[in-house]
Amino acid sequence: MRIDGSRLTIPDFAGNRFFNTLGNLLLNPRAGLLFIDFNSGDLLQLSGRAEVFLGAPQVEFF
What we know:
Elements: E1 2-4, E2 7-9, H1 19-27, E3 30-36, E4 43-49, H2 57-60
C-alpha cells in the first residue's frame, strides 16, 4: 500500500484474487478497509470512494 495525502493506493498483482474486487469497484466505487493490530486489539476502519487505475503512473510505484 502507499499513502499520499488522502489517497491510499493498493496494487493488484496477478494471482492475488483481487480481480473480482476490482470489477466490483468499477460498478460500485464505495469501499471499506479494516486494519487490525492483533497485538493491541486496536482497529482502524476506513471508508471512501475507490477508483481503478490501469496503466496509470500510480501503478509504476509498485
